[in-house]
Specification:
Layout (H helix, E strand, L loop, with lengths): L2 E2 L4 E2 L4 E2 L4 E2 L4 E2 L3 E3 L4 E2 L4 E2 L3 E3 L4 E2 L4 E4 L12 E4 L4 E2 L4 E3 L9 E4 L4 E2 L4 E2 L4 E2 L4 E2 L4 E2 L4 E2 L4 E2 L4 E2 L4 E2 L4 E2 L4 E2 L7 E4 L4 E5 L1 H6 L4 H15 L5 H11 L4 H11 L14
Parallel strand pairs: 1-4, 2-5, 3-6, 4-7, 5-8, 6-9, 7-10, 8-11, 9-12, 10-13, 11-14, 12-15, 13-16, 14-17, 15-18, 16-19, 17-20, 18-21, 19-22, 20-23, 21-24, 22-25, 23-26, 25-27
Antiparallel strand pairs: 27-28
Helix pairs in contact: 2-3, 3-4
């Protein structure tokens, strides 16, 4: 059974799952799919062409599925797709995709926490188990891999990529890609080490963390340039999923990756 307030505005063309709660003054437009067990709180808005998976919560003031803030958008049908158990806190905004990207969709994975006042722009892809802390802003066509954490007020340039298990410091300005498993911070943003605490919390062994550390010391703390470091890593370090992920990520970067720390004077 569902619990839908008579004061909510729910389109008859919306598809509502089982055990869904929709609070007073919430708005659910047409061509929306709300999965089982979702809770749409009072004054939240779920706009057309949005799909919510199971057990999601949308807090007051959040707007999910608004049209893109992109001059290349010309009214085409595009979507927002939200996974299961996603929490969207107060006044967060998630925009639909665009034709220009060729994707037509903004996607959020499972078990991701989107805190208050976060903005996720058109055609972004956010993975599973990510945390976007309050006032983070993700510009269009950014990709964030699983388990990444972005600190409060981080600003991410369009077309950027943030790797799995990476942690971005609060108020950072991300203008380069952030490889997986690392910490980045400072202004201008730079490599600050391996995300050891986060990796250990997620079940990585000390041996595996040290393996990742050795890889990044070769990239960032040696005298080699990035291309030379990647060749040395491939030739001298055993192939593992983590090593191969790092190599593939950096070689595939179109914006270039965050630099090594600058020496202070």
């Amino acid at each position: 059974m569902n619990n839908i307030s008579p004061l909510a505005s729910v389109s008859p063309a919306a598809k509502i799952g089982d055990n869904v709660t929709i609070g007073p003054f919430a708005v659910v437009e047409s061509d929306v799919v709300i999965g089982d067990g979702c809770y749409i709180m009072p004054h939240a808005i779920v706009m057309s062409y949005t799909t919510l998976g199971k057990d999601c919560t949308v807090f007051p003031g959040a707007v999910v599925g608004a049209v893109p803030q992109d001059l290349k958008f010309h009214g085409e049908i595009s979507r927002v797709e939200i996974g299961d158990r996603v929490m969207i806190r107060e006044c967060a905004t998630i925009n639909r995709g665009t034709e220009a990207s060729g994707k037509f969709c903004t996607k959020i994975g499972n078990d991701t926490l989107i805190m208050s006042y976060v903005h996720i722009a058109h055609d972004c892809e956010v993975g599973n188990h990510c945390i976007l802390v309050s006032k983070t802003a993700i510009a269009g066509e950014t990709k964030i891999e699983d388990w990444a954490v972005l600190g409060g007020g981080a600003m991410v340039h369009q077309f950027s990529k943030i790797g799995a298990h990476a942690m971005v410091g609060g108020a950072s300005k991300v203008t380069k890609d952030v490889p997986p498993y690392i910490l980045v911070d400072r202004d201008p943003i730079c490599y600050m080490g391996v995300n050891r605490t986060g990796l250990l919390r997620r079940g990585f062994t000390e041996e595996k963390v040290n393996e990742i550390k050795d890889i990044y010391e070769t990239i960032y703390l040696s005298s080699y340039n990035v291309s030379q470091a990647l060749e040395i890593i491939q030739e001298t370090m055993p192939a593992t999923p983590e090593r191969d992920h790092i190599l593939s990520f950096i070689r595939g970067s179109k914006r270039g990756v965050v630099p090594k720390p600058r020496l202070s004077r």
